[in-house]
Amino acid sequence: MLTLKKTDRIVVLTGAGISAESGIPTFRDAMEGLWSEFDPEELATLSAFKRNPKLVLDWYEWRIKAFVDKAIPNPAHQTLVKWEEYFENFTLITQNVDGLHIKAGNKNVIEFHGNIKRMKCLGHNHKFAWVRKGEEIPLCSVCNSMLRPDVVFFNEMIDPNNLQAANKAVRNCDVFFAIGTSGMVYPAAGYLEEAQILGAKTYVVNTEHHFPASKRDSTVFLRGKAGEILPKIALS
Ligand code: BV8
């Protein structure tokens, strides 16, 4: 049975799978109904937003109303709150934009791909809570430029502060977990292999054996639902 020591320097990377048991569909689940003909990699881009801001805002608004606002943290999220309190050195990096780790009670979360409940303006990155009346394209109250979701679109750079914090944690960890992620999107997907090369013990928690980089090395694969596996991991 896996036991973690209080003095272990832990890094956890989470993906959409950790929120699946909270009712938020993962990216690789078929997008339901209205949106099934769209590909997230097509919609989650700045060019798509500039070409059709209403379509992209409608998609994000649908995700917020249909899933994010109704989602409650599950035992996997709750376990990571306990880990943050227990370990002297703990870093949580999430690819998820659903805010569920913060809702669960984690204090320091690297929201590597942003947060769907925030918006920022095209002009100067002025930030706001998600606000949209009807089908309008909201404008920045400071500089009057268009507001877009405050998420990292494909082919956009990761926020440099988040990138630096994540890189530093991965380069100084003893144990690295990739939880509920297919390990397909970079640079987040590169962290497991980087940690492993630097000598960390690496674990994948997933219902399926995804995460290509983890198949070539001594990564331990813990098959199952994150909400069932994480609470069972012992802390010594
Ligand atoms: C960048 C926010 C520099 C938006 C997201 C070619 C090769 C390599 C890289 C690239 C390439 N071409 C372009 C790139 C770079 C690109 C990339 O990686 N593309 C991929 C697709 C090849 N990356 C970028 O663009 C990044 N920026 O690199 O900047 C640059 C600049 C210019 C030009 C080039 C490079 C920015 C990427 C950020 C994109 N934004 N989200 C939004 O959410 O709308 S990505 C989004 O998709 C998520 O945030 C997440 O990262 C990803 C989805 O992945 P997962 O979270 O893993 O979810 P998925 O559904 O795939 O898997 C779920 C897993 O859970 C499954 O394995 C399943 O089995 C498991 N599961 C299900 N249920 C459970 C479970 N596990 C446990 N328990 C359960 N109950």
SSE arrangement:
Blueprint lengths: L2 E2 L4 E6 L2 H4 L19 H4 L2 H6 L1 H14 L8 H12 L2 E6 L5 H5 L4 E3 L2 E8 L5 E3 L17 E5 L8 H11 L4 E5 L11 H7 L3 E6 L13 E4 L2 H4 L4 E2 L1
This protein binds ligand BV8.
Ligand BV8 binds next to helix 1 and strand 9.
Largest sheet: 6 strands, parallel
- The spatial strand order of the largest sheet comes to 4-3-2-8-9-10
User: Could you list the spans in which at least 5 consecutive residues all have pLDDT below 50?
Assistant: none
Tally of individual helices? 9
Bound molecules: ligand BV8
Residue-averaged pLDDT: 94
Order of SSEs? EEHHHHHEHEEEEHEHEEHE
Estimated helix fraction:
25-40%
Shape: elongated
Distance between the termini: 12 Å
Number of strands: 11
Structural class: alpha/beta
Strand content: 15-25%
- Based on CA atoms alone, the radius of gyration comes out at 18 Å
Question: Explain this structure to me?
Answer:
Helices cover 28% and strands 21% of the residues. The protein has 236 residues and is an alpha/beta fold. The strands form 3 sheets. It has a 6-stranded parallel β-sheet with strand order 4-3-2-8-9-10, with helices on both faces. Strands 6-5-7 form a 3-stranded antiparallel β-sheet, covered by helices on one side. α8 (191-197) links the parallel β8 and β9. Ligand BV8 binds at residues 15-17, 20-21, 26-28, 41, 44, 95, 97, 113, 151-152, 154-157, 180-182, 184-188, 205-208, 210, 225-226.
